[in-house]
Design a protein that fits this description.
Order of helices and strands of chain B: HEHEHEHEHHEHEHEEEEHEEHEHEHH
Family (chain B): Belongs to the transketolase family.
Cofactor (chain B): thiamine diphosphate
Radius of gyration of chain A: 18 Å
Oligomer: heterodimer
InterPro entries (chain B): PDH/Transketolase, THDP-binding, Transketo_C/PFOR_II, Transketolase-like_Pyr-bd, Transketolase_C
Helix content of chain B: 25-40%
Structural class of chain A: alpha/beta
Largest sheet of chain A: 5 strands, parallel
Strand content of chain B: 15-25%
Protein name (chain B): Transketolase family protein
Number of helices of chain B: 13
Largest interface: A-B, 29 and 27 residues
Shape of chain A: globular
CATH class of chain A: Alpha Beta
Number of domains of chain B: 2
Number of strands of chain B: 14
Number of helices of chain A: 10
CATH architecture of chain A: 3-Layer(aba) Sandwich
Distance between the termini of chain A: 19 Å
Number of domains of chain A: 1
Shape of chain B: globular
Keywords (chain B): Thiamine pyrophosphate
Distance between the termini of chain B: 39 Å
CATH topology of the largest domain in chain B: Rossmann fold
Order of helices and strands of chain A: HHEHHEHEHHEHEHH
Largest sheet of chain B: 7 strands, mixed
Structural class of chain B: alpha/beta
Radius of gyration of chain B: 20 Å
């Protein structure tokens, strides 16, 4: 790597660390939460918010911003962690996560949180909304991108495929979608709940410019986002990110995999220490 | 008696019912007008009104899920091809994409059949449009029992479903004039709207009543001492015909038209229903459950207004396929059936 690439990498690694740390702190507030997912997607969010996307922290509704749609609403803890790191949500609100009257509810909603573009949670809806945003931005002559994060479990939903087909039909080259393949959904491993492979072939057959990467390899994530933005074809862009739940906290990553990763009360502090150890390593 | 398969039992029931009724009519084409022969009509009032509105409002766009021709949206597509989005036969995508376009400042009119919006796309409307209070107008053909194609196409519970959805405004227009007037009115209203649509050659009658649609307002079209019919949609047309027919029998029927099902014009309903001595009949092209009838009943009881109360509505059942005139007679929402029912109640 040349020095500028190394500097970018180091900067984003630090951002990813803070996103993971914020997520663990929020998990500790509630005593639970989707921290396994937050830890797995932190590298993608770091690259999205601190390398790829254009936005104004003090004006989250600035019309020139790139849109980021969180389809998998239960990943809100991860997005809040990124929005805090981005300065869109104040750091002190972290302690309100999931509490009464908080702007940071357990499942993400557009009407609650600055920087939250959609109300996710009813899984499989994000890409359909993204198609509308992408069409609307084209109507306005905007150069903004619409990013959508969704999960492998959402591939079970038919509307996802309606949206995938229409994005190619409308040549929505301003759409960038990231599917998080952590292979866990509510009832077990996603590939066993409903087989979704070969996913690259499916996405390409649906007309998307498709990349498959290790979503916890920061250099690979950076390259994928750059390639997605710069791809010359008039196609929507898909990043299939294979990730590891609990990534960054070795004892959580090693724990038996589940939709929820169990974290006992005394373990939050240990998790933060393990994260810190990885940062200095 | 040994149990028989439900489907076989039902088929036999139908055959014996049908045999009793002659002559047999043919199922009219799904796209056929609900207008009676010789009735004054206007062609495609929604399509023409939307084209006119779009001339004044550049934010208006049209979207459909493979039913542009069957919701009169093809007129808009022809006039404004660059503002028209064919989303394919994908109602969930239609609603989600309408939400995204509304977020980007467009004013989407999204069309499909009422069954598909209310049943298939309900959660998408609920979560992507209504929860965020977005400015999307959902305009749907074949409301209630306006097709003989059977339950797959008969939206007999759409009003109940959309009444139950927070933030949603619900409109059930009566005729071509009302549809024309409602289009700019719902566009001017900020927030999600569900409007039932009559398409093709649509009956025209409210021009004779010096009528003006106002969002959220019920209008007394005709006063009467003996009966007050409270109705919406095509049942207002029927109620006016019933009033005329019963006038010959010296029964005086008033008609209160309630095109906005939600929010309900409770003040006007209480005022009219509270006038003593009249039988109140709520008539609607919808199941007895959850529509205008129950909305009016709740409003009356909550206010302690308790006139004699009856409901003319479709049964809580999967309705038969067949010719519309046959079905309207069978389920009591034809003019003749309705007049007979009301006379029976008066004794």
């Amino acid at each position: 790597m040349d020095s500028s690439v190394t500097a970018t990498h180091a900067h984003l690694a630090e951002r990813a660390y803070h996103i993971r740390r914020n997520a663990l702190l929020m998990g500790e507030v509630q005593g639970q939460g989707y921290v396994g997912q937050a830890l797995d997607i932190a590298d993608v969010l770091a690259v999205a918010y601190f390398h790829a996307m254009d936005y104004r922290p003090d004006d989250p509704e600035w019309d020139g911003r790139d849109r980021f749609l969180l389809s998998n609403g239960h990943y809100a803890i991860a997005l809040y962690a990124a929005l805090i790191e981005a300065g869109i949500v104040p750091q002190e609100e972290l302690e309100t996560y999931g509490s009464d009257d908080s702007r940071l509810p357990m499942s993400g909603m557009a009407s609650y949180t600055p920087g939250m573009e959609m109300s996710g949670g009813s899984l499989g809806q994000g890409l359909t909304i993204a198609v509308g945003h992408a069409l609307g931005l084209k109507r306005k002559g905007s150069k903004s991108f619409v990013y959508t994060l969704f999960s492998d479990g959402e591939l079970d939903e038919g509307a996802v495929w309606e949206a995938l087909m229409s994005a190619a039909h409308w040549q929505l080259d301003n759409m960038i979608a990231i599917v998080d393949i952590n292979n866990q959904q509510a009832d077990g491993p996603s590939s066993q709940v409903m087989a979704f492979e070969p996913l690259v072939d499916k996405m390409e057959a649906f007309g998307w410019f498709t990349q498959r990467i290790d979503g916890n390899d920061l250099a690979a994530v950076i390259r994928a986002f750059d390639a997605a933005r710069e791809h010359p074809g008039r196609q929507p862009r898909m990043i299939i990110a294979d990730t590891r739940m609990g990534c960054g906290v070795p004892f959580l990553e090693a724990r038996e995999k589940n939709h929820f990763i169990r974290v006992d009360a005394h373990e939050w502090q240990l998790a933060l220490e393990a994260l810190d150890a990885g940062r200095t390593a | 008696m040994a149990a028989r398969p439900r489907s076989a039992r039902r088929r036999e029931d139908r055959m014996s019912t049908a045999a009793a009724q002659k002559p047999k009519l043919k199922t009219s084409a799904m796209i056929a007008s609900i207008a009676a022969e010789g009735q004054r009509t206007k062609s495609a009032p929604f399509g023409h009104a939307l084209v006119e509105l779009a001339g004044a409002r550049p934010d208006v766009i049209g979207m459909t899920a493979d039913l542009g021709k069957y919701t009169d949206l093809h007129l808009f597509a022809k006039a404004y091809p660059e503002r028209y989005y064919q989303m394919g036969m994908a109602e969930q995508l239609l609603m989600g994409a309408a939400a995204g376009l509304a977020k980007e400042g467009a004013l989407p009119f999204a069309t499909t059949y009422a069954v598909f919006a209310s049943r298939r796309a309900y959660d998408f409307i609920h979560q992507t449009i209504a929860e965020d209070d977005l400015n999307v107008k959902i305009v749907c053909a074949l409301p209630g029992l306006t097709t003989g194609y059977g339950p797959s196409h008969q939206a007999t519970e759409d009003l109940a479903l959309f009444r139950a959805m927070p933030n949603m405004t619900v409109i059930d227009p009566c005729d071509a004039l009302e549809i024309e007037q409602a289009v700019p009115a719902i566009a001017a209203h900020k927030g999600p709207v569900y409007m039932r649509l009559l398409r093709g050659n649509v009956p025209l009658l409210l021009d004779e009543y010096d009528y003006k649609f106002e969002l959220g307002k019920a209008k007394l079209l005709r006063d009467g001492r003996d009966v007050l019919v409270i109705s919406s949609g095509i049942m207002t047309m029927r109620a006016l015909e019933v009033a005329q027919a019963l006038a010959d029998d010296r029964v005086d029927v008033g008609v209160l038209h309630v095109p906005t099902i939600k929010p309900l014009d409770i003040a006007t309903i209480l005022r009219e229903a509270g006038r003593s001595g009249r039988l109140v009949v709520v008539a609607e092209n919808h199941t007895t459950i959850g529509g205008l009838g129950e909305a009016v009943a709740t409003a009356l009881l909550s206010a302690g207004v308790t006139p004699p109360f009856r409901q003319i509505a479709l049964p809580d059942a999967f309705l038969d396929a067949g010719a519309l005139p046959t079905l309207h007679e069978r389920y009591g929402i034809s003019t003749e059936a309705m007049a007979k029912t009301i006379k029976g109640w008066l004794g």
